[in-house]
Hints:
Elements (H helix, E strand, L loop, with lengths): L1 H42 L3 H4 L2 E2 L2 E2 L29 E2 L5 E4 L2 E4 L16 H10 L17 H4 L4 H11 L21
Antiparallel strand pairs: 1-2, 3-4, 4-5
Amino acid sequence: MRRNLLIFCLLLLSIVTIIVLNINSVQSQSDMIQRGKYLVDTVGACGHCHTPRAGAEYNMNRYLAGHPVNTPHPRYNFSMIQQGIFILTSTQMTAFSGPFGTSFASNLTPDKETGLGEWTEEMFIQAMRTGLHQGTAGNRKIFPPMPTKHYAQMNDEDLKAIWAYLRTIKPIRNEVSPPLNSRGRPY
């Protein structure tokens, strides 16, 4: 009888422990996502470039979807340097052209074909650390105005929180153009 009571108590303690750990894990995941939202929407200001604008307002139907496919983009002319102009931007504030070429704000939504859907957390963190697309040496650099040197200084917990949040937003199909060199050709 005593042995059965001991087994029952141990079993009950195990079940309670598992439930408490699962509740804490859910709260931790929820907290991480909330932290990621805070970092994306305020500190990182990701939407300033990755969410197209409709006039002065952000087009929240395209939240973090990047430069809209098939929309005009600015074209830099080197004579603009003499006029003190270093960078041009599209009317949506999602494409940027300067002496470096033309860059387009990427689709940060979890769309599997056109966004970050096929990326892993490790790829995302390495991209932020290295300034290389998908975080690998064989890929191209992430172009201005993306402040990769600033994001490289973020700690792993914050980058993981950003990643966790980005996985929760609405996927939007939007094939963003690859960056163009100063002659207007893809790199």
